[in-house]
């Protein structure tokens, strides 16, 4: 009897524990979100635009590529099948990848390219992101054709911090080249000159009415009168920031870079390459056809594509459409004030449901100059200014991409791949935004990283310079979002500039424009261990060396140490 009673009790305890573990597992799954699987097939596919047919590398035979849709906190496994002819990597722009830099994607920074004819599965770990992000190739210039959107909905049971829109629409701003983009950058790097500019901009892959052979395929966004639409806008353009607007319609910006902002009512936005914005628009005008337009912001002497892409904001119903849709009045291509006036209006929502935490006591401060430079060529033998080779730098160091990825070298203690000597200040100070003469026109070359202790409160002051062709530089940091606490024209002043900081509700973003001959200050807590790339998102500048790497060390607990690498990583040619 005793033994039988004990057995019954043990059975009851086992059943109870089984129930507890089952419930715990269910709660854990709910906490971690759902798991999704995607297959991305990279393949050369023919496309015709501007009366020109060419083959270009795309994902799943589409340009732009497929959309990844998740809820906040979900996990995604994307298997990239490279059926192209050369190695490629894919980056998940704005996805922080907590403790897991291995699938982040920048070529020879966190991985080597996925060889043609092979596959690689990348894990996307969504954490606090909510809104719109995007993915793109991160090897040479292949991102011109290999890119798409990521939409992160609120967790089930929660909703947007603004009225529910009637419908959502995705608008991806892209750039069309009649030539082969890889050949264009290869030629530019070989000769040392500026790469060819694009032949058109595009909205959802279509250039629009203002280009040859494009009217019939112009993208049309069909709307119902009185309804409000959420536009998820991605700037996948290679080398130009974009002014964007809709004729006779006001826009309300409510989100940016996978987070929420205080609503901004405006008739235009300025969005840099790499940025995403969530915008509400109400169809409250007389039913007709209205142009959605994107045109360049380029406050520079460097060559750029000075054309405009259009789509049509088309009302449903019976009416006689105009012979030409109404056009918005966007700022001029070099209107620096219009760009700056929009950008400084961006502020975090900073609500109870969406709080922020700006670092106030800084333990790691970096002053970083951002410059376009030259590399000397003997006998004026190169195609850049004065017969030299065009270059770019951060703190006067032009980044040299290694042949073995830095993450692998860091993890496996491989010597000779990089060094940890990226400085916290430039080599010397001068009037950065004035008459710079030959100051730092010639940078040093190197693969230099900056090591940051886990948990540090970091402040980076980006200082634009008048060296070379000055312009607005959209700086992007992998693995983090950061608070943009300050921005101004001219030289940063350690005494007066911090007095202008916004430490109450600064925008939390992953990409921000540093004004031409101006400065921008960002802050973040270094709580994501790993190897993280930082670079200008104007592709020609990144190709010239306007890049560096931040290495955030492991924290003291297992929960703040970098994860182990996956079982398979693409091989490096010289690893």
UniProtKB/TrEMBL annotation:
Alphabetized, the UniProt keywords read:
Apoplast, Copper, Glycoprotein, Lignin degradation, Metal-binding, Oxidoreductase, Repeat, Secreted
Q: Which reaction does it catalyse?
A: 4 hydroquinone + O2 = 4 benzosemiquinone + 2 H2O
Residue ranges occupied by any Plastocyanin-like domain in the UniProt entry: 43-155, 170-318, 433-554
Q: Which prosthetic group or cofactor does it need?
A: Cu cation
Domain of life, per UniProt, equals: Eukaryota
| Listed SUPFAM superfamilies | Cupredoxins
- Taken from the record, one Pfam family name reads Cu-oxidase_2
Give the matching InterPro entries.
Cu-oxidase-like_N, Cu-oxidase_2nd, Cu-oxidase_C, Cu-oxidase_fam, Cu_oxidase_CS, Cu_oxidase_Cu_BS, Cupredoxin, CuRO_1_LCC
Q: What is its main location?
A: secreted
Recorded GO cellular component terms are: apoplast
One GO MF term on file is: metal ion binding
E.C. designation(s):
1.10.3.2
- What is the UniProt remark on how the cofactor binds and its stoichiometry? Binds 4 Cu cations per monomer.
| Alphabetized PANTHER family for the sequence | LACCASE, MULTI-COPPER OXIDASE
Q: What does this protein do?
A: Lignin degradation and detoxification of lignin-derived products.
Q: Which family does it belong to?
A: Belongs to the multicopper oxidase family.
What is the protein named?
Answer: Laccase
Taxonomic lineage of the native organism: Eukaryota, Viridiplantae, Streptophyta, Embryophyta, Tracheophyta
């Amino acid at each position: 009897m005793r033994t039988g009673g004990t057995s019954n009790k043990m059975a009851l305890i086992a059943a109870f524990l089984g129930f507890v573990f089952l419930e715990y597992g269910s709660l854990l799954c709910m906490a971690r979100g759902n798991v999704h699987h995607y297959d991305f097939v990279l393949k050369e596919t023919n496309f015709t635009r501007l009366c020109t047919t060419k083959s270009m590398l795309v994902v799943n035979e589409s340009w732009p590529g497929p959309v990844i849709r998740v809820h906040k906190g979900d996990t995604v496994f994307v298997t990239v099948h490279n059926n192209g002819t050369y190695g490629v990597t894919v980056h998940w722009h704005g996805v922080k990848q907590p403790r897991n830099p291995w699938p982040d994607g920048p070529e020879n920074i966190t991985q080597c390219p996925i060889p043609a004819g092979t596959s690689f599965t990348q894990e996307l770990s969504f954490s606090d992101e909510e809104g719109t992000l995007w993915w793109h190739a991160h090897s040479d210039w292949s991102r011109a054709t290999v890119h798409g959107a990521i939409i992160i909905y609120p967790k089930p049971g929660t909703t947007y911090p603004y009225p529910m829109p009637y419908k959502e629409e995705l608008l991806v701003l892209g750039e069309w080249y009649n030539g082969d983009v890889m050949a264009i950058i290869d030629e530019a790097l070989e000769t040392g000159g500026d790469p060819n500019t694009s032949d058109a901009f595009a909205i959802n892959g279509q250039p629009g009415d203002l280009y040859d052979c494009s009217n019939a395929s112009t993208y049309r966004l069909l709307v119902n009168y009185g309804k409000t639409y959420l536009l998820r806008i991605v700037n996948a353009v290679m080398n130009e920031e974009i002014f964007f607007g809709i004729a006779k319609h006001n826009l309300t910006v409510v989100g940016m870079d996978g987070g929420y902002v205080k609503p901004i009512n405006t008739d235009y936005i300025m969005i840099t390459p790499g940025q995403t914005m969530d915008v509400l628009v109400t169809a409250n005008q007389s039913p007709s056809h209205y142009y959605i337009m994107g045109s360049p912001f380029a406050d520079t002497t460097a060559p750029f594509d000075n054309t405009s892409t259009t789509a049509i904001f088309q009302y449903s119903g019976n009416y006689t459409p105009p012979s030409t849709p109404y056009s918005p009045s966007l700022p001029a291509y070099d209107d620096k004030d219009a760009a700056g006036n929009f950008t400084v209006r961006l502020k975090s929502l900073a609500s109870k449901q969406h709080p922020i935490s700006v670092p106030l006591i800084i333990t790691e401060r970096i002053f970083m100059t951002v410059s376009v430079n030259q590399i000397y060529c003997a006998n004026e033998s190169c195609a850049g200014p004065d017969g030299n080779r065009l270059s770019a730098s951060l703190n006067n160091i032009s980044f040299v991409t290694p042949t073995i990825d830095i993450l692998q070298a860091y993890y496996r203690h491989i010597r000779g791949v990089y060094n940890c000597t990226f400085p916290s200040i430039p080599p010397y100070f001068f009037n950065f935004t004035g008459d710079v003469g030959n100051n730092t026109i010639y940078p040093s070359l190197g693969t230099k990283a900056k090591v940051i202790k886990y948990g540090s409160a970091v402040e980076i002051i980006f200082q634009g310079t008048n060296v070379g062709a000055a312009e607005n530089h959209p700086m992007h940091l992998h693995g983090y979002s950061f608070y943009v606490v300050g921005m101004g024209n001219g030289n940063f002043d350690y005494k007066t500039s911090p007095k202008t900081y916004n430490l109450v509700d600064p925008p939390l973003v992953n990409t921000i424009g540093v004004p031409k001959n101006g400065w921008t200050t960002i802050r973040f807590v270094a709580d994501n261990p790993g190897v993280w790339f930082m670079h200008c998102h104007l592709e020609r500048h990144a190709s010239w060396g306007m890049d560096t790497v931040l290495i955030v060390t492991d924290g003291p607990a297992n929960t703040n140490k970098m994860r182990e690498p996956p079982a398979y990583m693409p091989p490096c040619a010289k690893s």
